[in-house]
Amino acid sequence: VVGALAGFADGQATMVSLPAASAGAPEFKLLVLRQGDRAHAFANRCAHFGVPLAAKAEQLISTPLKSLTCNVHYARYAWATGACEAGECDGEALTPVPLVCNAQGGLCIGTPDDCA
Predict the structure, then answer these.
(1) Is 0.85 topped by the overall pTM?
(2) What is the DSSP letter of 40?
(3) CA nearest 82: which of 112, 53, 111?
(4) Which DSSP state fits 103?
């Protein structure tokens, strides 16, 4: 579970840190983008340069419901699809992370069966 849908501000991008998969591994940072009663997510990794779009939540550059921008080289990605819109990322896109909302309003990574 990533969190409750209601816990994410509508029209905003939120960075979520998930625990490491194994001892010594780094935590996984996910960008959750909410739009009304839906949310989708991308890995916090610039497709152009391979660095995080932002190292900390307060450094995340986004235009609500429009785009996310890497704060290292300013590559800009579409909010809805993660596709490159501007910068040196032509033909690339952010890595989507599948999210589903369970009956209790919790957002989970995976398929509906993973989040029952």
Answers:
(1) yes
(2) E
(3) 53
(4) T
